[in-house]
Each structure stands twice: as structure tokens, then as C-alpha cells.
Design goal:
Elements lengths: L2 H9 L8 H13 L3 E4 L5 E5 L6 E7 L4 E7 L5 E6 L11 E5 L3 E6 L3 E2 L2 E2 L10 E2 L5 H5 L7 E4 L3 E3 L4 E4 L2 H19 L5 E7 L7 H10 L3 E9 L8 H4 L9 E5 L4 H14 L4 E5 L6 H5 L8 E8 L7 E4 H16 L13
Helix pairs in contact: 1-4, 4-9, 7-9
Length: 347
Amino acid sequence: MNREFLYEMLRTESVSGGEIPLQKKVAAYMKEQGVTVNTDPAGDVISSINDDSPFRVLLCGHIDEIGFRVTCITKEGYLHVGKAGGVRLSLAQGKRVTVLGKKRVTGVMGLLLQKGEVKAEPELTDLYIDCGFRDQEDARRLVSPGDFVTYTYTVDELENDCIAGRGLDNRLGAYTVLPALLRARDKGARVGVYAATTTGEETTMRGAFHAASRVKPSLAIAVDVIHTSDFSGSLPQRFGDIKLGGGPVLCMSSVCSAPANRALEETARRMGLSVQYEVASGVMGTDADKMNQTNGGTPVTTVSIPLRYMHSPSEVGCLSDVEGTVELLSEFLAGLDETFNLDPFAI
């Protein structure tokens, strides 16, 4: 595992709609690895091997993160913001943030008080950022409406191969598709493999839709994160019994390809690799939902990485799960050829 590059991805802000600075780093890194790299107008970066193969597998890991955008600046110099994705507002108060203005500006989400106590359930219009500006004119020297805002927390190492930081959803998945492609190449993969770091999943899901429309894959796999059920108050009956450090998570869903899931399970069995299961009765809220709607019905599935405290300022993941997902995908890809049957009616 290239921890240095993973941590660089985690340190680089990539709020939904503002992914290009990080995407440039991904494109440069993959070009150094000697694979074909293309970009598209949606902001996707698509790395590939074996482009002449008629059987193509698209791996998608969305590279955007939740965050905020500045909407207005008050006469006192405070910043108001809108949400970019599913931000949990109750967790925002008092958190340190970075405003990506004309320069990087540090601020604090203001504390809202009711009768001297912190307001438990703030509205978006309640929130404001205090950067220490004297007034509106002072703020406008450095900040403009539309500027992106992230929590300042980047990445810290915990015990037992765990890490904490903002944006593990889904920088872990975006990172994973890159070494999965490279390792599949090293293992002699014969099919076309396309690793896309996609834009906009947290807000519009545009990136995966356009990537799949261009690549026209035989099979598409969304690599994302999934809530664990191994901490206080979490409900295993919501998605399944999923543990941090328990290995990659396969999804049982009406959207997911049964032939692809069976092949992934068989690959894991041969490897002696533990896998876990997510159950989704309807849409999954991942890139897979959109990719399935392209090209007359692209076969899709997901492979997910367990994550605690999703959409919070400090999510927690485990690097052994990332490594296990890379190994599962690369081994699966290396074992494919163009005869792989994705027909759900075939038994």
C-alpha cells in the first residue's frame, strides 16, 4: 500500500464540485505508473489498461467529499454557507474549518446558544463561520461567495491499523481503485480495466454516469464505504453485521449483478479472504445506482470498505480493509476473460 499517496489524497480538499486540484494529483500519479490516463468534462480521471479488449470492467471510486460553500458574507464579517452533500449540522458547531478563498483561511463554526446552552438541532441558516474578520470589507479581501469550505481535520493514525479524518468517504474508495488496477496489471489481467476517480457523487452523481457512458463497460463496480455496526447505538439490522477490520463488504441488492457477486465470493474463497455482506433492498446511494442506468442497463455491483462515523468531521476506517479490497478486486480482475457470463438468467 502506498500510504504516502493515500495520505496526500486525504490531506487535499475535494468538496463536491471542487475536485480538480486532487484529480490533477491522481492523473499525475497514474501517468507515473505507466498506464493510459484520460479526463472528461465532468472532471473524472479514468486510468486504463488493455484498452483493446472487448470486455471492459469499470471501477469507480468517487473522489468528492461532503463540505460547504460560502453563500454570503454579513456586514460583521461572518460567513454563511450552504451544504455540499449530506453534512450533519449538529456536528458542525465549534468545529475548525478551512475556507478555500484567495488563500487558505482558518475559521470556526459559531456556537448557537439558546438560554445559554448550545442549540442541539441547528438549521443550516443558523450556521456561520467566524474567521476573525473585522467586517464585511475585511472578509471580502480573501473570501467570495462560492468558495469551498471543509473541516480542517485531515488524517491521523490510530491503533491497530486504523486511521481517522474527514473525507474517508470516499477517498478510501477512490484510492483503492488505483492500486487495484495496477496490481491487476501486474497479475496479468487480460480484460480491459478502467479505474475512474469520479466527481459529484455526494451531490449529483454526475461523474459516474458520464464515466460509464464513455467507457461502456461490460461490468461496473462501485468502490465506496459502508456504515459499520460495531459501535454503540449502531443498528446491524439496518445494513448488516459489519465490523471495522472485518474485510471487504459485498452488497446484496436488486441493483447488483448476481453473477458478479458470485464470482467475487468465489475469488475471496480461493484467496482465504474474509468478506462481509451489506443488504440493500432498493437503491444504494452509490455510483452503482447511476452506472446501472447507462448503456441500456450496465451490470453493476459494489465492493465497500467498512467505515465508522460516516459524514462526520472525523470518520474512522481500517487500512487492512483497504488492502483486502485491493487484493480482492485485483485477483478478480486477473481471473476474468471475455467469456465471463453476466446474464442473470444463466444458471
